[in-house]
Design brief:
Molybdopterin biosynthesis moeA protein, domain 3; 4 domains; single chain
Amino acid sequence: MRAHPIRTVAVERAPIGPSCAGRAIAAEVLALEDVPPFTRSSVDGFAVHAEDVRSARPGAIVRLTIVGEVTMGADAPRALPRGHAMRVPTGGWLPSGASAVVKKEDCSDLGDAVEINDGEGSDEHITRQGADIRRGEVLAKPGTVVTPASVGMLSGAGVSELPLFAKARVALLVTGDEIVSPGALLHAGAVRDINSLSLGATLRAMGFSLVSYERVADRKDVFEAAFARALRECDAVVISGGSSVGERDYTPQIVAAAGAPGVIVHGVRAKPGRPTMLAIVGDKPVIGLPGNPVSALVMLETLGKPILLRLYGKDDQTLPLRACLTSRLALDPRLEHLVPVALSRAERGLNASPLLGTSAQMHILGFADALVAVPEGSGPIEAGELVDAVPLSRTTSLR
């Protein structure tokens, strides 16, 4: 799939704020100001010349005349001459000439003078202009996801708006005559709709704008029309069901006929998820997922997500968690296995408890926190071994 180009969505400039969190930066962002923008005190106390207080200690008190006070949000009222001090709060502007701040608790305020009994380390109580961030420094690169903390960092550096990728519109088509919605009458042979809800929620959690369509009947002409509409209206299409090899599984045929390069992959050597289809029509990715709920969700997380994130010019950067396996995994070595696990705190880190079952048993994902990949050709993994557990998508933030 990496050998084929896919589109990146449009770029928009948005005012910086809480709503930017979870979205992807589309262009390099530079600091527009130094942080802090001026040299300031890091403690409550008195601005002084370091040379005037260096010898101060109990029994050798240094007395300085007070010549003013710095208030928050304002410049120092005057330069500080030698032999004098100026009251300054934490974060206050350091007056010109001052090179140290004596902590309030290391001196006695006499009103018009201050007696200093400990001047040691007073030159360390200063935060210099630009000590945090320098003007012109690169703060974000394309594909970087804005976090709650980085919103504050960028704003503090004078950034007022951000170049962000627009939310990619991802269509979700769910096929199957047997599917009924929550709350509807469950007639003979019917099953509740799982994939519309779980796949839709996952796409939202991955940072996409979900475009849901009505359930698609198991008829070729109906699916063909629905797929054409979704492809026309959206940046990518995710299909649930119809990618297997049965007589009514015509999805690959319709996708291949929609345009080049067409179907790139049909079938993967992994369990669950073997019938998965990966395609590109023009520059739009199409992800064909199995109908079984576990297979569909696992393949969306492991194969669909990194492909869809390319709409934002971004690689999947989900970091695995190192965890201790609680029970032995002995699986068919002819396939790669993607095993759901429940994570729990342990005395020395995390435990990963495998949740085993068939690809139709949604409870094994409903209680799962992460997936553990067991590569094709691997032998058993014994209880107590450390494994990489890749967290499932849970929030509205990209990763």
